[in-house]
Amino acid sequence: MPAPPPTILPALPLSRRVEAAALVWSAFGTAVAPGAPPRAGVALLRRCLARDRVLAAVGPDRQLLGVVALRVAAGGLIDARPAARGAILGPAARWRDRAAALAPSPPATCDAVLDGLVVMPAARRQGVAAALVGAAATSARRQGYPGLRAEVAPRNVQALRLYRRLGFQPAGRVRTGWLRRALVLRLPL
Description:
With 189 residues, the protein is an alpha+beta fold. The chain has a single domain, classed as Gcn5-related N-acetyltransferase (GNAT) (Aminopeptidase), CATH 3.40.630. The chain is 37% helix and 25% strand. The chain has a 7-stranded mixed β-sheet, with helices on both faces. The protein is globular and about 35 Å long. The termini are far apart.
């Protein structure tokens, strides 16, 4: 019997913050805090996840299945206050922050951008990612955005298939950090 569809919560519950931080770290840790040990990185994310911008997918027993955020003018998945980074990662965070400020930023867009889509390994290929993207598209549409963008590493074949299956179309390339290039896919809303 197929798994029941997940429930999408409009904000990350406090009770799931530690679990979400570990999940995001497992997928994006090296981009969030390069060189940080996992324990410190998860601690940073636990403090800095922008709960109000994070959509959470939960199962029937309320276990966390996945998360995604919308990156908009107000920010995205992470509210990385420098004070929090320094307190958790130590003095090395200062030079990392300075170096990150030198990295090229993605170009401004009038679209909302999917930020940090990640699904628990046991819940993959069960429609969780599609449900999260659908909820993100609905939220972006309600907020008046004309489109929803996904910035995907060219080697992330599974994500590219998912977005194309959901109607996203290629919209170019973007540089997202130190020598990191991403394919841009866009879904008109």
